Amino acid sequence: MAAAAVADENGSPKKTKQGGFKTLPFILVQVLHLKCSIRVLRVHYSVNAANEVCDRFATVGFNANMITYLTQQLHLPLVEASNLLTNFTGTAAFTPVLGAIAADSFAGRFWTIAGGGVLYQIGMLGLVVSALVPALRPAPCGGAAAAAPCQRADGGQLAMLYLSLLCTALGSGGIRPCVVAFGADQFGLGGRRPGGEQKWSYFNLYFFSMGLAVLLAVTVVVYIQETGYPLYVRLKPGGSPFTRLAQVVAAAFRKRRAAVPEDPGMLYQDKELDALISTNGRLLHTNQLTFFDRAAIVTPGDIAGSGEPDLWRLSTVHRVEELKSIVRMLPLWAASITAIAAGSHNFTFAIQQARTMDRHLTPRFQIPPATMIIFTTLTMLVSLALYDRVFVPVARRYTGRRSGITYFQRMGAGFAVAALGVLAGALVEAKRRAAAAEHGLIDTPGAVVPVSVFWLVPQYALHGVGDALATVGHMEFLYDQSPESMRSSAAALFWVAGSLGNYLGTVLVTVVQSASRGEWLQDNINRGRLDYYYWLVTFLLVLNLAYYFVCFHFYTLKSFEVDAGDEAQRRRDVAGSAEGKTELSAGCVVASRNGVL
């Protein structure tokens, strides 16, 4: 069975000179530009010092110094600032849903990325103004001896900040769900399954570039826009995937009393109707979630005299399987939410820990507390490089898989390492607090506890390793297991998990604050019990890991048709696939799980 030719956004067949690794510099530099633009609202006490601070700490991520800006410049309480930051991060991670709808329905990934970039820059300009203009910040505190409390930011000052943050959130919503899928699209040439044997390496390279962006500033966007366009593979949108999903649900509910035939061959198929959304092969019928199979049962009135089906009454097997694929993915996708919630404190409480510790590199120079985030970034970069160049070749000898291990194994390992990272944080906080008590600093939150800030490096480093494993594996899982016409939407799910994870972090902090009656999480962390909070999060991560194993045990991979004439190439692709064991038969590839954990 031959697959339909892949067309670009203009409907013309893809040319061999399009796609591939030659497009990646333009795509990955766009990622670098996005990440580097998420600069910090730097902590500064004069306008003249702002540029110097910005240049010196251009490697520090947006969230890292945001907690410092909110508490030290806008004078918000620690818990309120933490919740504000996680709520913003959650909102920014949810807006990719809007970008995914636009990309998959009508705009296409290329133009959605372009539009999101423009809106994002508008928001960043607003953030720069709000950070540099003195009138948009409250007056500085009078010093330690001042009797009056610090003046909190007023409504107008916060409104400017919120409006700018909203623009950046909406702009990133156009970029985040599209850029990773847009890059992976570049390897779907010649009717081959997207990604092929190069796909697993692409995802490593993508996330390596995201981390590298925190260290580098990019200023060649104009060149990219003018030079990169002709090289891209631009897949034509196949209509709103959410409409198709709704049509399947509506048709299945309408026929909820109909008996599902034992022979799947009796269910409705229409290759021409599905051609635009199945260019790499139609999804094959699976025996799970059979309630939705009713949508593909042909009943009187489902097909008009012209032969066109009423899609709100009748769906093809491929469209039914699109819905099944998404539903099957959701439990495994949800496992990342708790891990993200646990990691959110790296940008809030962990930085406050660093602020109270000895940060001197030399007698006259001490590192800013937010700079500790760089250990997560550097560890992630090193881990990605070692994973790709050392671990994969070694693992390949034992597993026979071109990718070394499956993305299921990679995600599970990442979740386990994340739990160890929080555990390390609990142990270090107990040591820091004990030192504060020993030196009589419990009620002196501004004093420096005689414990080196580099005791925090293990927890930051472990989070970096966890990101290199779980984050990349999660994205590859979503891209590989989602229907091909919904890959922007699948990438949006990646960011929605981040959104819900940050919101969950807010809920967790709020619940802990209430349940502990304000004892665990205080502005004076020397008197609070932040270590208890870390122990609680560690316990939740262990439960989450067990939940992930259970969900994996019951997961079934999607199966799809391929061109029998391209079987030899597909055998090479399958050898490097992350799904596990794959069978080739009669012109179709059927992927199946093979005890990968």
From TrEMBL:
The keyword Membrane applies. The keyword Membrane applies. Belongs to the major facilitator superfamily. Proton-dependent oligopeptide transporter (POT/PTR) (TC 2.A.17) family. It is found in: Membrane. The chain crosses the membrane at residues 84-103, 110-133, 161-184, 205-224, 330-349, 370-387, 407-428, 492-512, 532-550. GO terms for cellular component: membrane. It is a multi-pass membrane protein. Its main location: membrane. It holds the Pfam family PTR2. InterPro entries: MFS_trans_sf, POT_fam. The lineage of its organism: Eukaryota, Viridiplantae, Streptophyta, Embryophyta, Tracheophyta. GO terms for molecular function: transmembrane transporter activity. Keywords: Membrane, Transmembrane, Transmembrane helix. It comes from Oryza barthii. This is Major facilitator superfamily (MFS) profile domain-containing protein.
